[in-house]
User: Fold Os09g0345300 protein from Oryza sativa subsp. japonica.
Amino acid sequence: GNGLLSDGTIIAVKQLSSRSKQGNREFVNEIGMISALQHPNLVKLYGCCTEGNQLLLVYEYMENNCLARALFVEQYRLSLDWPTRRKICLGIARGLAYLHEESAIRIVHRDIKASNILLDKDLSAKISDFGLAKLNDDDHTHISTRIAGTIGYMAPEYAMRGYLTDKADVYSFGVVALEIVSGKSNTSYRPKEDFVYLLDWACVLHERGNLLELVDPELGSDYSTEEALLMLNVALLCTNAAPTLRPKMTKVLSLLEGHIPLQPFLSDLSLAANSLSSSGQRRNFWQTLSDQSQSMTAAQASSSNTNESSSLDIAGSLRP
Assistant:
């Protein structure tokens, strides 16, 4: 919900489930991490309340809700010009680069997706929902026994094997970048009957040399083809099936800002395309993720029945 501080500041209040110890763990986890993180592209935490059974977090209010609504929900869709889309993409990259490599505590977010990217009054991007965040212990790999995230944004090695590093966030960022350029949702857009996700179609267009077909038609010709191609190519680099071939977020940011050239990374991009080179391989890959999604849904339902709270989308109350 929303509220007002004594000085007139509008706030967003997020309530976590208090039905289980898991809810309390998530609450303490989120407070501890967010309070230590201060960055223009992270949602600011003002305070907390644990009175009675209430587990509440008080955040800054985001006037323009979330990126998913701005891009995908017809009645709330915003007219985002190319400079704004580029600014949003760069903002997400800066926030992730800070989480992974610049903050005092290194964090893997684990659930980067369009609905967890909030937009302020100036349409600047701020990363929200650290309920799933996992500490990044000096780049050591975490094998997670509790897979948490969103199918369609989850890196394949994490979705299928629980293999978690900061490269999982890099993958998710790549998916969101594709959505920003195209104006289409990765999980609900069906360009052709044979293709399951937007990313699937992007790989095909890359192979054909027609990546610009992905650009949102609402932009018309009013965008930089050079910047759009760069963002699309970087998105495909980030969604490489092999995590070791995905660049770090600081490098992603440097690429997007034009500080380092894309050319040296093009061989990795070719490897990314070849790793899922046939439509049959792609369909099999996405079907595996789909099966994983159904298993996760069943597990969440079972968890709910035993009063365990789900943390798959706990950013909703930060939005107007």
